Structures are given as structure tokens and as C-alpha cells.
Amino acid sequence: MSAVSIILVEPQMGENIGAAARAMLNFGLTDLRLVKPRDGWPNDRAIAMSAGAFEHLGEPQIFDTLKDAIADLQFTYATSARRRDMVKPVFTPQGAVEDIGAKRTGFVFGPERTGLANDDIALCNALIHVPTNPDFASINLAQSVLLLAYELSKANDDSAPRTLAYGDSEAVPTAQLEEFLTRLEGELETAKFFKEQNLKPTMLRNIRAMFTRAELSTQEVKTLHGMVSALIKKKK
Amino acid sequence: MSAVSIILVEPQMGENIGAAARAMLNFGLTDLRLVKPRDGWPNDRAIAMSAGAFEHLGEPQIFDTLKDAIADLQFTYATSARRRDMVKPVFTPQGAVEDIGAKRTGFVFGPERTGLANDDIALCNALIHVPTNPDFASINLAQSVLLLAYELSKANDDSAPRTLAYGDSEAVPTAQLEEFLTRLEGELETAKFFKEQNLKPTMLRNIRAMFTRAELSTQEVKTLHGMVSALIKKKK
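Above: the input entities. Below: the C-alpha cells describing the complete assembly.
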């Protein structure tokens, strides 16, 4: 996927420009373009809110019109909270990201209060609609930039949905866990834990379920051995 | 999926509490809990940044400790930008959302500067790690709340990734498009557009490709008919 340009049309609050820049860089986007920012550029509030992002991004490009800002791009998506009276394909954020391919692409965001003007939307190839709570739909400008940048980054990310990091240790090999369970059973037997022998197989299965489910590390199984040893000693 | 509680531990900036509340409500979450907010509660900056969200959410619950704040929950995820020296399952945002099921769940966020203390992380069942740019990893507090709320909302959302809304019109039935293409071919023939007859089939196929790809509405095909009529007249 090609890198995507972020175009903010007439952004009003410097804070939002800065927060958008930070959000972009958080997810690896670097091309920020501003069309007629209300307070001009540079903007101290933008820089304060960016948490240093502009040091990495460089200066945003400034344009007088959206048409100029997207001149070199091949496909642009206008973000819009409202449905518009124009026949344009409307994508979810994820749908847009899956649609991009190798085209030089821009995501276009309107001013905070009004969103994009219809004439600006007409310049874009498609719309992105973030499906928000219909009773409280208006999303902050930098937050929408973040969502799109996040979806783009996700498409390039192959992190497993769930991992377990064992630090200096590692997942315990089955044989070592079995050794512990065998020892535990023996100590429990000695301690007369199994009052009714006919229930013993079920109880052992339940104990095993706890310890296998816990995805223990080698170190943790050592700790469990130590705990059992200590408890036996205390008992004596 | 059950509703998820958002727990902010010792949030420093009122602005972030307000922006988090707005982001929650944007995506339909309503249970906000604060553990020892630095500037107490109520907080004028939080209310100013919330864009009215607290009018819908009600007052956040305030707690002295994270342990108290999560007492009624069944499963909690600590959000963390750093890897920790604890053996806990680590989920991506989407991975966590897919994992939740019907458990009463909380997402726990640490203070802006330091993130969650290890003792607070130890209270939680699992970690969520948002995979950000390793060279610029630190994400704003309200932005992380937004990402998680967005992922939760996505899991409940069945929007098609791409739709085309025709407003008052509708997608043109094939027969009406064919009628237009037949007419267009006739008018182009009359106008001696096809200079080399052996290329005519290819050119017609290419013209057809443009108009079928455009996913035209009935209204738009009428407009095209009108355009052709006007152009013929002008020519005469």
C-alpha cells in the first residue's frame, strides 16, 4: 500500500492540527497538507500539541485550495459525518483502507464546525463515513485522523491478536508441568486432601484444568514447586 | 458483547478526561470511572472538552484505588505502550474485542506521563498493546480510549465496507443503460466519430467500460441523454 496523505481543509484549532500530526506519526503517516489554516502557519498551539511530531514530519505543505492540495494524488476520500446529496461511493474506514491498493491516495478532512463543503466533497472520488453513535455523532478532527491512520497501520500489521510474553523465561514444556502435577497429586494424597476416593479422578482433572489453562512458564512452575515445598514444611 | 467500562487511573489533564468521554460516547460507551483524578472532580476543562458528552453519560464514578474501581468487573485489560516484565496475555485492540464475550469487562488506562504502574497492571487480567510506530510510540490518552471504543463499536457494526447511496434516484436498470449506449453509438456513427471501422468494436467496448464502471443512477442516465441531445443541437 502506498503512503497516504492527510489533507486538513481550513482547520480552525491549532490544537487539532498538532494532535492530528501526533496521531499520524503514531501510525507511521508523514505527509500532512493544510488548506488555508485559519490561524496561518506556523502555529504555536499546533506545535505544543504535537508532542514533537513536526520534528519528524517536517513542515506541513500549505495550499490555498483543496484542488491544489490534491493535484498530484490519484484518489481522494472525503471524510464526512453527514450523508450528502451526491452519488459517491461511501466507505467505512476499514473498507477504504482495503480499497486503496497502490494509488497515491489522500484522506481529506473538513473544518471542525461545518465539515467539508459540498464543492470540496465534489472534488474527491469517494467518501469515508465513520459509523458513530447517531445520538452523538460528531467526532473530534484529530480523532478522525487517528482512526484512519490506525486503520492504515492495521492493514500493514501482522501482530497476533493475542500473545503471551514470558520475559526471561519460556512456556513450560509439557513434561515439566506433568512432573509438577504428579508431585502435587502425591503431596495432596499424603495430606489426605482426597477425602472421597471415588471423586479423586474428577478432582484431579479439575486441578489439571486450572494449571494447564494458566499457560505457565518454566519459572512459574519452579515457583509452584517452591510453594508446595514451603506449605508442606509449614504443616509439619 | 457486554458494555465495557473505561477506567482512567490518575488522569492528569482535564482536557483528556473530556476528550475521552466524548470519544466513548461517539462509539456508544457510557461507563466512565476515574481513579484519583489529579485535579479532582468536577473539572471545568474536562467538561469544556467533552462537547456535552457528560450530559449523556452522567457523572463519572470516582474511586480511590484501581482495586475499588474494578471490584464488580470480571475481566480487565490494562493498556500499555511498553512491554512489561510480567507474564500476561497481550492483545491487540481488535484481539481484545474479539476475546471479550459476555464478561463484565473494563479497559484500564494509566496517567499521561508514566502509564500504569506495575502494581496496577498486576491487578488486571491481560494487557492491550496498541501497535504504534516504534519511533514515535506515545499515544495521547483520549486517543487510546477512542481506538478501543472504536474497535468495540466495529465489532457490533455490520456496515458494508462500501456502499453507494443514490439519494432520490436509484441504480439504473441495465436495459436503460443499454438504451443509452445504443443511442450514443448511433449518434457517434452519425457524427462520423468512428473513422476506422475495424477499430469500432474495440472503441465501443471501451466506451461501454467507462459507463458500466460508473455505476450510474437512473437520473444520471437521463442527464447523459440530455447532454447528448444538447451537443447534437449545438453542432447543427
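Note for the figure: The CA atoms of residues 151 and 157 of chain B lie 10 Å apart.
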